[in-house]
Amino acid sequence: MSTQQAIAFRNRTWDVAATLRLPEGFDPGRKYAAIVCAHPISSCKEQTSGALYGEALTREGFITLAFDASTQGASGGEPRYSEDPATRVEDFRCAVDYLVTLPYVDEERIGVLGVCGGGGYAVSAAMTERRFKAVGTVVAANYGRLMREGDMSPDAAIRTLDAIAAQRTAEARGAEPLVVGYIPGSEAERAQAGLDDIDIVEAVQYYTTPRGRQPGSPNRLRFSSTAAAVGWDAFHLAEVLLTQPLHIVIGSVPGGFGSYRDGFELHRRARSQHKSLQIVAGASHYDLYDKPEATGQALAQLVPFYRRHLGV
Fold first, then answer.
1. Closest CA relative to residue 63, chosen from 50, 74, 73
2. Rounded distance, CA 139 to CA 254, Å?
3. Beta-carbon neighbour count of residue 308 at 10 Å?
4. Which distant-in-sequence residues (6+ apart) come within 8 Å of 220 by Cβ?
5. Residue 82: how many other CB atoms lie within 10 Å
6. What is the mean pLDDT of the chain?
7. Rounded CA gap, 41 and 65, in Å?
8. Which has the higher per-residue pLDDT, 1 or 303?
9. What gap in Å lies between CA 122 and CA 142, rounded to an integer?
10. Model confidence at 205: pLDDT above 90
11. Could you give the C-alpha distances from 278 to 92, 275, 288, in angstroms and in order?
12. Model pTM?
């Protein structure tokens, strides 16, 4: 079993909460490879990124660091519940800053793994964070693309930006901040809204039931924080700056969040000489969060990928 430590590292003026996992038989006199694990949009470190992938990788001999995004979960930062790409990407750099202060972490053997939106952020961070030597993603989703597409209707992005602008004006004049949900808050709410895309259905099943529900993931988003995301692209300059070894995991069942097509796009665009795309047959987006058959197949390729490029 791994040993878990609750730690914090700084991003600008606040603390980012994280769980550091040390492998069984940990020897502080040795040097270990380490992997930063990033959670999905709306998630937290106690869910798939840490409790499943972080724990599994630590059992294989890696040190892992799973963190809550700034302004979310147990992390500090204001305004609360913001989803700002620049801040999210900076979290990764600050996580590396913390790891390189640990005498038992080999600074030349640090990798990153991101799940869903955390995968998009991990890719974006790795392009300008050369201390990441290997990049893995599981159902990586490009949050900027999602924000621009909205409900897939014409000019969805422009309507979203107009709504954000109106809300910011209202808040500047004293209105209460608008905090919305990323997904429907319950199965009844989803059914009433008529949302039947597989990713929405399974998101509700994961986040709002005992299967995945955690206090650090309250399904709260500050609407006025999202304008920057509409103009951001997780894969921008991948063909120029993303050179690290890359392993991409997607499920064969497409859904509305778009991780299936994002996986192909990332594989096509990445400059990496060593890159691979793994398609888990029969798996949906959320199967790769916690279903043993799907996650087992993902880890069966992720573990040797990290061993090959980071060592253990």
1. 50
2. 10
3. 12
4. 80, 81, 179, 180, 181
5. 21
6. 97
7. 17
8. 303
9. 11
10. yes
11. 24, 10, 12
12. 0.97
